[in-house]
Design brief:
mainly alpha, Methane Monooxygenase Hydroxylase, Chain G, domain 1
């Protein structure tokens, strides 16, 4: 587990609670503008969590790549880096 995973999980739990509140807003008949604003906030929170996860992975992956002595291991780590980069 990477160092930032607990913080990322905390962010996602907060977004989950916020999303549950939005579902309640819909049931209450709140305006579309209010719901859309709240959905935008949840979307941004999830996006920020994703970025934190990817940046942490990149840092971790690059550190491992620099310290790898085995060419096969280096190729594997670079491939993993490329895989995660597509989610940026």
């Amino acid at each position: 587990m990477h160092e930032t995973h607990p913080e990322i999980a905390k962010r996602l739990r907060r977004a989950k609670g916020h999303l549950e509140h939005i579902i309640e807003m819909l049931a209450e008949g709140r305006t579309c503008v209010e719901v859309a604003q709240q959905l935008q906030a949840v979307e941004k929170a999830i996006d920020n969590a994703k970025k934190a996860l990817i940046h942490d992975h990149i840092d971790h992956c690059l550190q491992e790549t620099v310290s790898a002595k085995d060419k096969a291991q280096t190729k594997k780590l670079i491939a993993e880096f490329r895989d995660v980069a597509k989610y940026l």
